[in-house]
Amino acid sequence: MLQKYFIFAPGAVVPNGGQGYFPGDIRQAYQVPDDLDGNGQSIGILEFSNGYSLRDAQMFWRSHGIKPASVEFVSVDGIQNDHGEARADQEASLDLQWAGAIAPGAGLIVYEARAGATYADFVASMETALGYVLNDRERTPSVLSVSYGDAESSFGAPALRQLANLVEQLDAQGVTVCIASGDQGAYGKHQPSQTMQRNADAPASLPHAVAVGGTSLQPDGTETAWSYNSRDNGGATGGGYSDVFQQPDFQRGVVPAGAGRGLPDVALNADPAVGYQIIFQGQSGVVGGTSVAAPVFAAVVALANQRRAEAGKAPLSGLTEQLYSRHANLPFRDITRGNNSFAGVTGFSAEPGWDACTGWGAIDASRFIKALAEF
Questions:
Q1: What's the domain count of the chain?
Q2: With contact defined as beta carbons under 8 Å apart, do 4 and 275 qualify?
Q3: Which residue, 211, 215, 217, is CA-closest to 28?
Q4: Which of the residues in the chain have pLDDT under 50?
Q5: Most buried of 27, 128, 208, 224, CB within 10 angstroms?
Q6: Dihedrals phi, psi of 342, to nearest 5 degrees
Q7: Is residue 195 situated within a structural domain?
Q8: Is residue 256 part of a domain?
Q9: pLDDT digits (tens, 9 = 90+) for 322-374
Q10: With contact defined as beta carbons under 8 Å apart, do 166 and 206 qualify?
Q11: Does residue 301 form part of some domain?
């Protein structure tokens, strides 16, 4: 069965006395504006066979002085929320808790479908879920967070092109789809293989999705690519070049000539060696992975859409393309140290400008939102 991008902090020294970063830490580190909370926006969160406990989420938010967000559960195919009873449900918990920590005024919609037992099952469920969101005229989220995936070869080109078509339609409709770029570095696979080679992660490689990679944000403010360290973090940011999707026009001149769609597009902290706090089954825990970076970035997009709504503008559309065509006017925090080598596969190095490790880098959310509001 498909695994979600999600890694526990393996006993490393983490902030706040070992509890991981709190919402206030991340808001300050990325300069999230205090005058926006996502009011009037809805954030869709795709989950596959992972339920959540609303009680845990509310406990997390209240413990940090955050007004609990409005949460709605939507079953895509009849599956029911198990309310966080399974160990794997920590994954849905972190998505929900951190999206609500950054945009507490937004409505949070958890769209859940069955994951199935095979990659073919999963890709069929994802197609069903994306189609459901596309046709959901009742809730109309303006951003969607997805933290699942694996190497493109696990799914096959025809299935990925179907997903790409749905994401393109969602994007045109004003739903920005943010997808985690993976936690297995340039190798890109959850399971070991005899063929140790680079793999771009899907569905993050879909051309109209925003692929969100991972960094390692230290308490002193320094930030590097999330690079593999077997002692402290056990993973690395996903990134590379698609073997299924050609290089989009908007990446020409940025991505090497002849390469496919390059990813990630942006990156935020994902390193479990510093970690994010969550509450699960009433207990504090520390997690990491691009699975957390994706809902945090999605929440920032919701804040940008709130600002746009205040100015009488429609939600963002075509954000992935604009990250490239307008990159000179966007306040990226360029990441120039680290790499995403993993499992013996040589990855890509962070370097000035865009790279297949951290994309354009991290963001100053206040300035980033201001720029997006002016598009």
A1: 1
A2: no
A3: 217
A4: 1-6, 11
A5: 208
A6: -160, 140
A7: yes
A8: yes
A9: 999 999 999 999 999 999 999 899 999 999 999 999 999 999 999 999 999 98
A10: no
A11: yes
